[in-house]
Design brief:
The protein is mainly β. The protein is built from 4 helices and 30 strands. The strands form 8 sheets. It has a 6-stranded antiparallel beta sheet. The protein has a 5-stranded antiparallel beta sheet with strand order 10-9-17-16-15, with no helix packed on it.
Length: 381
């Protein structure tokens, strides 16, 4: 059957790109029609057939959703008791993505979507139990990639004993997180776990206001950390364990993409571009141990029979030589492999890797205790 649910939602894309020209509030006698991109669904199990939905505040002060073709019977309502007169109740979509119903006179919150999450956790949202009200907030996956109906998986904070996070398939847990107290950690996001007599919950904030980040429990039961990459115009998964680094003498081309977005695809550039003019003025080599050596497409075998010392001298004589490796060739002698120009795809490879010696200027060489210092991290250049 060809139908589309009306998703009452806060759109991160719209929040980021279009809210300067969009309504963020509605009052009585005003309406809002459908939008795009979903992070929260009101009527996930009560679809409106077609694509015409109307969101408004009724005479009782409730936020209600109707089909455009049937304005008498709501398909969804906040269903709270509000003493309202005329225009005292207002619904507002905040920049946080929280849809809030509040009393415009007292500014007190009557209802908010952050208390009723679907499959997505946004910064500032709490997952867990409020013992004062009995409200338990948790994520429930979509039924499928295209159907936001209630799915099979849930992400919940179990407050019993030492609180911990669980992913459930129905009523059976299939994954358990580390128990409280968790170490709060900071990278692109500040994650914290609160446990006291009033509340047990997990929350997170974003350390850079320009970053758009969301946590989603997808329909297959996987938790995904998604970050918006503006240059690509799409969401990418965010890896908290980011183990890339630049080779000695290099630095990220885009520090923001590297350090905040955890995206190393832009590569690295020399820290001091004028270094190419300083060849023969105190430059040298820094050892990067046990790696899958850089892409050899543009590399040159200077010799298949050359000592490590002579290999270094060979590379030093040519100012275009950016690195060298002295490699034992099975059944033969020790060869000298040299690189000219960019060093691409250098990855730490434990005991099976080779040592590569990267050319650096005098300043960089002075920052290294010894020219043979090991530099054993993943290299994404």
């Amino acid at each position: 059957m060809d139908f589309q649910k009306l998703f009452l939602h806060s759109s991160l894309l719209v929040l980021h790109f279009a809210f300067s020209s969009s309504k963020d509030t509605i009052t009585m006698n005003q309406t809002i029609h459908d939008e795009q991109t979903v992070v929260w669904v009101a009527n996930r199990d009560d679809p409106i057939y077609g694509s015409s939905g109307v969101l408004s505040i009724d005479q009782h002060g409730n936020l209600v959703l109707h089909s455009y073709h049937n304005l008498k019977v709501p398909v969804w309502s906040t269903n709270v008791s509000v003493e309202a007169t005329d225009t005292c109740v207002v619904a507002q979509l905040l920049d946080t993505g929280n849809l809030v119903l509040f009393d415009d006179r007292s500014k007190s919150t009557v209802w908010e979507s952050f208390d009723h999450p679907t499959d997505t956790m946004l910064p500032g949202m709490k997952l867990g139990l409020d013992r004062r009200t009995g409200m338990n907030r948790f994520l429930i996956s979509w039924r499928s990639a295209a159907d936001p109906g209630t799915g099979n998986f849930s992400l919940q904070i179990n407050p019993k004993g030492s609180p911990q996070a669980f992913i459930y398939w129905g009523t059976k847990y299939i994954w358990r997180g580390c128990p409280w107290p968790l170490k709060s950690y900071t990278d692109i996001s500040n994650v914290s776990f609160v446990n006291n007599q009033n509340e047990t919950y997990m929350t997170y904030s974003v350390s850079d206001a320009s970053v758009i980040l969301r946590v989603m429990l997808d329909y297959s039961g996987l938790v995904k950390n998604l970050i918006w990459h503006e240059k690509d115009g799409k969401w990418n998964e965010f890896c908290r364990r980011f183990e890339c680094d630049c080779l000695p003498g290099y630095e990220p081309k885009s520090p923001r993409e590297w350090n905040i977005l955890k995206d190393a695809s832009g590569g690295c550039v020399r820290k001091r571009l004028e270094s190419t003019l300083l060849c023969g003025h105190g430059d040298g080599f820094v050892k990067v141990a046990n790696v899958k050596v850089s892409d050899t497409s543009a590399a040159v075998w200077a010799s298949t029979n050359m000592s490590p010392r002579d290999c270094e001298k060979n590379c030093m004589r040519n100012c275009s030589c950016s690195a060298y490796a002295s490699i034992d060739i099975a059944g033969k002698e020790t060869g000298c492999l040299t690189w000219y120009g960019k060093l691409m795809d250098t990855v730490h490879n434990g005991e099976e890797g080779y040592d590569i010696y990267v050319r650096v200027d005098a300043v960089e060489l002075g920052n290294v205790f010894l020219p043979s210092t090991n530099f054993e991290q993943n290299q994404c250049v």
